[in-house]
Amino acid sequence: MSADVTSMAEGGLAPRPDHVPADLVRDFNIYDVPGAAEDVQAAYAAIQQANPDIFWTPHNGGHWVATRGEDIMAMQRDYHHFSHKHIVLPPMPEGTQRQIPLEMDPPEHARYRRPLMQSLMPAVVGELESKVRDVAVEAIERVLPQGECEFIEDFAKILPIHVFLELVDLPLSDKHRLLPMAERSVRGRSAEIRLQAQQEMGGYLLGEIRARRENPGQDLLSKLVNVNVGDGRISEMEAVSYATLVLFGGLDTVAGMIGFIARFLAMNPGHRRQLVERLDDEAFVKHAIEEMIRRHGLANTARVIAEDFEYGGVYFRAGDRILPANLWVGLDERINENPLVVDFDRDRPVHAAFGNGPHACPGAVLARREIRIFLQEWLSRIPDFHIKPDTKPVLATGMVNGVLRLDLCWP
């Protein structure tokens, strides 16, 4: 992209700031990555290979992009310079309620995050396992006799949503209302679309939040909306923001990862057979899950530069936005040899799918458990499956990558 293009704000492009060198400007749009319709992560890997380690794009308000694993992991940990103050692109309208606790930095962040961590500890997740397994088995047995299914609607969304709605004690019947909101929130291409989805979710939750602030229960939602932050509990507005963010995360991200893994296994019978033959080998399955997570990164959260400073030979100015996309860590050949190849014998799959540092995903334990249960229950019943002829998986990019449709069939 020429410097002339970046000097104009036409066509939705931000003008190039004075401190951004013209030779670091690239045509990158997180919502329109070339090749993503065939393979989202391979498309990102191509961006990684073809561009400087750090570059600037005029799309989505104009922002920096960090593509290399070591830089991304450093930025995830260094909240002093790379603040979580705003995490989405393009930025939300000025004055929008921040997403709690994601758009907070330590030490404030820790006080809000604590009840979420406590509710998703390994011991608590262990108690949920039988419920997760029951939901998985029921969903699989429903589609098994049909010989085919639309995997995302018939399984990938069902498993995490049933479990999460039970965690927050909301009626399962509301899932059809909530899922479209989650989709628009995490993959809406404009700030207006995402804001509307958040407002709709806030409106849905407000009555529940007021009831549970009046009479708290033992469910996760009650704990979130009554969290004490040192000088009393959070305000009603903060409670709505916190609950909205957690619900969107619980309704979408695990479904996305399960979708990518199912698509991979449908297209790679050799890997599928390896898993089928060693389903009882807990260490092998655990390792295989990490390798598939490494290859199929999801979340992309932006940061705000907190002060003027130089990093890696690039001069950042306070207020600049930067995208250190999580999935590039797992795809970096400087860290993982032949990163686009899924190798269940890889010594140590390195990724940042769940983030690093103080903002590492508190739901990581539950996500891994759900993926493991999916593999165990699905592969023990449907060991041989593939993508239905004359169909094509529908993939999406954005702040959270995902699989929107996946038609599978089996003998």
TrEMBL record:
Organism listed in the record: Sphingobium chlorophenolicum L-1
GO molecular function, one term: iron ion binding
Keyword check for Oxidoreductase: yes
Family as reported in the entry's similarity comment: Belongs to the cytochrome P450 family.
Keyword annotations of the record: Heme, Iron, Metal-binding, Monooxygenase, Oxidoreductase
PROSITE patterns associated with the record: CYTOCHROME_P450
SUPFAM superfamilies xrefs: Cytochrome P450
CDD domains tied to this protein: P450cam-like
EC number of this enzyme: 1.14.15.1
The protein's name in its UniProt record: Camphor 5-monooxygenase
Pfam families: p450
Top-rank EC class of the record's enzyme: oxidoreductase
